[in-house]
Amino acid sequence: MKTFAIPTREQVTPENQAIFDTLTKVVGRVPNLFAVFATSDHALANYITLSNGKTSLRAKEKEAVNLIVSQVNDCAYCSAAHTAIAKMNGFNDDQIVEIRGGSASFDAKIDALVKVAKSITENKGHADHQLVENFYAAGYTQANLIDVAVAVGDKTITNYVYALTEVPVDWPAIPELVK
Description:
The chain is an all-alpha fold. It contains 9 helices and no strands. Residues 50-117 form the Carboxymuconolactone decarboxylase-like domain.
């Protein structure tokens, strides 16, 4: 497979340079996966618009979705990135490992969310009906379910870009899950 070079600021369009500048201010650097999005003149801006869009999910809930989707899609890059972000959103190491494993015994509502997001991802949108009912019983709404589907799609995009490019993971290493 042809290796994807990680473009520098000087190698991308002026529009992508502006996004690189913003990322550097916010994150302290341009993560490799975002840089490779800039190989396209439009993909980085389009992805950031989607990722930063409004949602009914709280930040912590969105990170739980990001963790389980990245795990199901076997994305080492996104699993590492979202482990770091999940910690910033209040999850501890044990909770993160449990979410990546497909459950959240420490919080019944997040458990229902993780299980439905996992089912959506594994079954290409055809979630287990009982898990959807459990999601509603935990206090989520139909609007929340649509936002979970969008979050699954968002994370699947980055998971696929990583799978296609295999850029180096530039986030702290995370533990492998015992299967």
